[in-house]
Amino acid sequence: MAGEPQADCLFCKIVEGAVPATVVRETETTVAFRDINPQAPTHVLVIPKVHYPDAASLAAAEPGIAADILREAAQVAADEKIDDHGYRIVFNTGSGAGQTVWHAHAHVLGGRGLQWPPG
C-alpha cells in the first residue's frame, strides 16, 4: 500500500535502521544521507520516511512531505556549504531517467561545476 514501508525497499530499510547509511540530517518526515556512489563532491539523498515509488506519486498523495524534501535539500546545501556556489536537486522518475530505487528521493549535488544539459 502506498505510504506504507515496503519489505523489499532499500530506502525503507534505511529509514527503519535495518541498513546503515551516513545520515547527515533527519526530521520527522525525512532522512538525508550520503550517496554510496557519489557523482559530485557533495551528493546527498533526501528521502521521505513514507514509501512512494517516485516523486510524482509522493507529490500527488502527500504534497506537504514533498515540500519537506525540498526544504531539507536546501538545508543540506547550506550545511554542506554549497549553497553559495550553486547546487542541483534531481528527482529521477522511471528507469529511463536513471531511477534504480523505487522510493521517492532527491539527489542534492554540488561542489563542482554542473554543466547543462546534464549527461
Automatic annotation (TrEMBL):
Q: Where is the HIT domain?
A: 10-119
Listed PROSITE patterns: HIT_2 (PS51084)
**Pfam annotation, one family:** HIT
Q: Which residues form a coiled coil?
A: none
- Span(s) of short sequence motif Histidine triad motif: 103-107
InterPro entries in the cross-refs: Histidine_triad_HIT (IPR001310), HIT-like (IPR011146), HIT-like_sf (IPR036265)
**Superkingdom of the source?**
Bacteria
What is the designated name of this protein? Histidine triad nucleotide-binding protein
Question: Which species is the source of this protein?
Answer: Streptomyces yangpuensis
